[in-house]
Amino acid sequence: MREVAILGIGQVPVGEHWNKRLVELAGDAVFKALEDAELKRVEALYVGNMMAGQLDKQSHLGALISDWVGFRGIEAMTVEAACASGALALRTAMVAVGSGLVSSALAVGVEKMTDTSPRETTAALATAASADWESIHGVTFVGLNALIMRRYMYEYGWKHEDFAQFSINAHANGAKNPNARFQSPITKEIYKKAAMIADPINLMDASPMGDGAAAAIVVPADLIKGQKGKPVIRIAGSAVATDSLAVHDRHDPLWLAAAEKSANEAYRQADITPNDIDFFEIHDAFSIMAALSLEACGFAERGQGPRLALDGEIGPEGKVPLATMGGLKARGHPVGATGMYQIVETVLQLRGEAGPAQIDDVSIGMAQNIGGSGATIITHILKAE
Amino acid sequence: MREVAILGIGQVPVGEHWNKRLVELAGDAVFKALEDAELKRVEALYVGNMMAGQLDKQSHLGALISDWVGFRGIEAMTVEAACASGALALRTAMVAVGSGLVSSALAVGVEKMTDTSPRETTAALATAASADWESIHGVTFVGLNALIMRRYMYEYGWKHEDFAQFSINAHANGAKNPNARFQSPITKEIYKKAAMIADPINLMDASPMGDGAAAAIVVPADLIKGQKGKPVIRIAGSAVATDSLAVHDRHDPLWLAAAEKSANEAYRQADITPNDIDFFEIHDAFSIMAALSLEACGFAERGQGPRLALDGEIGPEGKVPLATMGGLKARGHPVGATGMYQIVETVLQLRGEAGPAQIDDVSIGMAQNIGGSGATIITHILKAE
Question: Hey, of A49, A75, A380, which one would you mutate to test binding to chain B, going by the most B CBs within 10 A of its CB?
Fold first, then answer.
C-alpha cells in the first residue's frame, strides 16, 4: 500500500443539536474538512455510524450524506463496529486510498443521540454488547463497566477516588476546546460528590452522550509532500483487533487484549515504541477504560493505570498527555463520531492548531477507539512530517 | 491493486430459521466457505448486514461473528448500504486483499427477518429509504416500487402482465436450487391472479423476506493459479455508485443512474461489454427493478426491459439468463445477505457446480446488488480463468 496522509479536517461542536438533522451535522463537518483541504471533490465517502437505523430511522447514510454534500454518484458506505465505528471510517478511507482504488476519500463519523429519549438511546447503545449474554439481562454499558471497575478495584486495591485524575484532566483540557460539550474544569470535590450511576461509576467517571460529526480527508502522502505550506500528517500506523463481545468470555476481564494487539501492530507499522508517543487520544468512555487502555498499550504495568494519573503524568506537561482536548469525558461521546473526533484532535495537535489546548513539541500522536467493552479496538498513529 | 479471486463459498438455505440465531446462520455459511476453500483461518472478516441493530438488538457483528467462528482477535467490521450491504462485504474484502493489507479475507452477508413481526421488519426495511422525504409519509418499499412501476407502465405503455416472465423465470430457476426459499414453478395464471400488495405490484412481483447467510473467501489470484484442481474465479470488475435516496429527487425516476455508472465501471475494469456477460444475477427485488436494471446496464433500450423477458431471452437458454438460481424473487431476499447469495450463485455457475440450475458454457458472470430504490448499486463481474 502507498503512504497515506490527512489533508483536511472538520468538526462540529458536540452538543444537543435539536435544530439539525443527522445529515446536516455530517455535512457541516464535511464542508469544513473540504474547506480546510482546499478540495472541491473526493472520490469516495465512508461513514462511521452506529445507531442511525435505530434512533433516526435512517440507514443507508453513505449515499445520503454523499448526495447532501454535493457528491451524488460517488462510492459510499457505512462502516460499523459499535462505538469504534468512527475510527473504522478513517481506516476504510486509508485502505481505499492506500490501495490505489481512489485518490481521495472522505471519512466522516456522525451520531445523533439526543433527539430520542435517554431510555431509547441507552437501549440502542446496549446493542454494542452481547445481546445473548449481556443486554438480555438488562445490563447497560455503564453497568458492564461498573462490574469491570469494581473487580479492578478489588484485584489491585484501588479506591474510587484514585481514578479522579482521569476526569479532572479531561475536564481541564475540555475547558480549552470550543468544540467540547463541557467546557468547565472540575475539582476533586466535585468528582467525589458526583451522583452515583452504577456503583462504583459516578457521573464524573462516565462520558456524556451528544450529537456530533467529525471528518477527515485522506489522500496519498506524495500528493501533499510536494505542496508548499501543506502540513503532512501521515497515517503511520493503523490496526483493528477484536475480542469476544461478552466480557465474561474473555481470558481476563481486566485486560483489553484487542487494545494490546492493535496498539502493538500500529507501533510495528510506525516503527516506534510507546515511549515515542507524544500524546494519546484515549477512549475514556469510563475512567476504568482509560486505566485498562493505558496498561494494554504499554504505558503502565498491569493494574497500575491509575498510578500514572496520580503521578501527574497524564496532563499536558506529563509523560503521556491524555485526552488533550477533553476526551470522551469532556468533549463528549457521540458514539459513531467519537473515533473521528479523536483523529481531528490529533491532527490539530500535530499541526500546532489546538489553540489553548496545544501541547508543546509534538510530532507523534496516537488515537484509540474502543467498541463495546473492548470487543473492537482500533489504534491509529499519526506523524507530522 | 493485485488481482483477487474467490477461493471458497458457503451458504445456508433461505428460510424461516426460528431455531438459529443470527450468529449461527452467519457461522454456518462461514464454516461451509472455509471447508470449500480448505482453509483453517483468514486474516479479516467483513460482514454485510442492514438490520441486526434494529431487529436483533445486536450491532457489532464483526467481532461477534469472528469470535463465534473461532477467529477471535482478527480485524472485523460491518459494512452497510441498506439492501446492497451484502455485495459491500465482498467489495471490502476485495480491497483489503487487493491492497496487500491481508492475504485472506472472509465476506459474509447475513440477515434475520422472520423473528420479528412483519410490521417491525417492514419498518426496519423502510430505513433504507429517505426518512425525511419518503418513509415519514408511511410509504413502504413496496409502495415506492409501485409508484415507480405505475409511472413506467404509463410512460412506456406496458401492461402489468408484460412483467410476468421475470417472476416465472425466477421461480422456474428457483425450483432447481435447494437453497431457494421457494422451489415451485409458477404459471402466468398464478402471476395474474396473485394478491395485490401495492397496485400495480402483486405478490408475484415482490421478493419474499427470509433469514439467510452466504459467504465467500477472497485471496490473491496468484495464490490459486499455482494450485492444481482449484478453479480460479477472479473478481474482474467491482464498482460502487450512489444516487439520491429519495426517488423524487432524481433527474429521471425511471433510470437507475447508479446501476449504469457502476456497471460501466465494472465493464471497463473487466475490459468487456454487456454482450460478453454469460448470465446476470440481477437484483429482482421487484419485477420493475429487474426491468430498470436491464436497461441501465445496457442489455435493453430505455423502456424496453420487459421486451427481453417477453422474447424469452432471460431464461437459461436465452441471450441474458437472469436469476439463474431463483433470484431475489424465488431464492428469497434476506436483505443484507442477498448480495453475497448473488456472488455465491455466480461462483457456482462459473465452476459448473450449479446442479440442475447449471447453464452451459459460462465463463463470465455479473452480479448486481441494489440498495434502497437504487441509491447504492454495486456491480461485480466474475471470470472463470
Answer: A75
Task: Calculate how close chain B gets to A171, using CA atoms only, in Å.
Answer: 29
Q: How long, in residues, is chain A?
A: 385
Contact B95 A76 (CB under 8 A): no
Are A156 and A258 part of one and the same domain?
Answer: yes
For residue A77, give the nearest of B56, B67, B80 by CB distance: B80
Q: Is residue B230 assigned to a domain? A: no
A63·B371 Cβ contact <8 A:
yes
> Which residues fall within 8 angstroms of residue B189, CB to CB, at 6 or more apart?
none
For the question of residue B83 being annotated catalytic, the response is: yes
Q: What is the Cα–Cα distance from A172 to A188, expressed in whole angstroms?
A: 12
Which of the residues B17, B160, B333, B380 is marked catalytic? B333
Q: Are residues B242 and B218 in the same domain?
A: no
Residue B73 to residue A258, Cβ atoms within 8 A? yes
Total structural domains within chain A: 2
Evaluate whether A108 touches A341 at the Cβ level (below 8 Å): no
Same domain, B103 and B129: no
Question: What is the chain A residue with the closest CA to B242?
Answer: A73
**Contact check, Cβ <8 Å, B242/A375:** no
Q: Is residue B145 part of a domain?
A: yes
Are A200 and A239 within one domain?
yes
Q: What is the pLDDT of residues B101-114, one digit of tens each?
A: 999 999 999 999 99
A124, A319, B307 from A203: Cα distances, Å = 20, 27, 66
Nearest chain A CA: its distance from B129 CA (Å): 7
What's the CATH number where B97 sits?
3.40.47.10
* Cβ–Cβ below 8 Å for B372 and A60: yes
**Going by DSSP bridges, is the β-strand pair A4-11/A233-242 parallel, antiparallel, or unpaired?**
antiparallel
Measured between beta carbons, which residues in chain A are less than 8 angstroms from residue B78? 79-81
Q: B166 and B280 share a domain?
A: yes
- If you average pLDDT over residues A216-242, what whole number do you get? 92
Do A33 and A163 share a structural domain?
Answer: no
Chain A nearest CA to B239, separation (Å): 8
Q: How far is CA B232 from CA A24, A308, B225, B249, in A?
A: 46, 55, 6, 42
**A174 and A49 in one domain?**
no
Q: Which of B194, B225, B256 is the endpoint of a domain?
A: B225
Nearest CB to A79; choose among B50, B57, B77: B77
Q: Residue B243 and residue B339: Cα distance in Å, rounded?
A: 18
| Spatial separation of the C-alpha atoms in residues A306 and B140, rounded to whole Å | 53
B333 as an active site residue: the answer is yes
Contact list in B for residue A134 (CB cut-off 8 A) is none
Contact A95 B100 (CB under 8 A): no
User: Nearest to residue B38, comparing CAs of B84, B104, B131?
Assistant: B104
Residues of A in contact with B259 (CB under 8 A): none
The answer, as to whether pTM is greater than 0.95, is: yes
Predicted confidence at residue A227, as pLDDT, reads 80
Contact A53, B53 (CB under 8 A): yes
Q: What is the Cα B290 distance to its own chain's centre?
A: 12
User: Domain of B49?
Assistant: 4-117+210-225
- Residues of A serving a catalytic function are 83, 333
Q: How many CA within 13 A on the CB side of residue A276? A: 16
A34, A147: one domain: no
B218-273 tens-digit pLDDT: 999 998 887 877 789 999 999 999 999 999 999 999 999 999 999 999 999 999 99
> Which residues from chain B sit within 8 angstroms of residue A101, using beta carbons?
1, 95, 98-99
Determine, yes or no, domain membership for A102. yes
Query: pLDDT digits over A157-212, tens only?
Result: 999 999 999 999 999 999 999 999 999 999 999 999 999 999 999 999 999 999 99
